[in-house]
Amino acid sequence: MANYINENVAYDFDRFTSAAPKKEQQTAQPARPHLVKPQRKTQQDIKAEKRSNLQKIAKLLIVAAICLSFILPNIHYRLEINELNGSIISLDKELNEKKSENARLNMALNAKISPENVKDYAENVLGMVKRERYQIVYFDLDNGNEIIPAQ
């Protein structure tokens, strides 16, 4: 390693190569694949294949039916929920309209029976007047709870 100090070589890559001798690469052509001719199927093989195909189809149909039995009710209930949500929304709108109508009618009723309107109606329509001081009669109850009829 001391001899590399003064040279421009950074690494000695010969240290990393394996000690085994290098083999020359052979450029051999790959062997041709051997074609195998399929054997003819017998009637029993054909029947067994048909039977297995029918079993596969039956299994597939059963799995599809099971999946549909889970999916279709779910879709039905979701549609029903959407329908009910729509009716809830329309009923909420109707309720809000009724509440606002009720508030309007209560305000109109309060305006009609306000003390100012009652006073105005009593004075103008019924011809009533405010009582005067001489019209006030006081009762003296010091004598007890006797009632004396007027004569």
Brief description of this entry?
By secondary structure, the chain is mainly alpha-helical.
Structure characterization notes:
By secondary structure, the chain is mainly α. Helices cover 53% and strands 0% of the residues. The protein contains two helices and no strands. The protein is elongated and about 150 Å long. The N and C termini lie far apart (149 Å). 0% of the residues are buried. The model has no long low-confidence stretch (mean pLDDT 84).
Topology:
Elements: H1 43-112, H2 115-124
N-end to C-end Cα span: 149 Å
Classification by helices and strands? mainly alpha
- How many strand elements? 0
Into which percent range does the helicity of residues fall?
Answer: 40-55%
Mean pLDDT, to the nearest integer, reads 84
- Uncertain spans: none
SS summary, helix count = 2
Strand content: under 5%
Give the CA-based shape. elongated
Order of helices and strands: HH
Main β-sheet description = none
Radius of gyration from the alpha-carbon trace, in angstroms: 55 Å
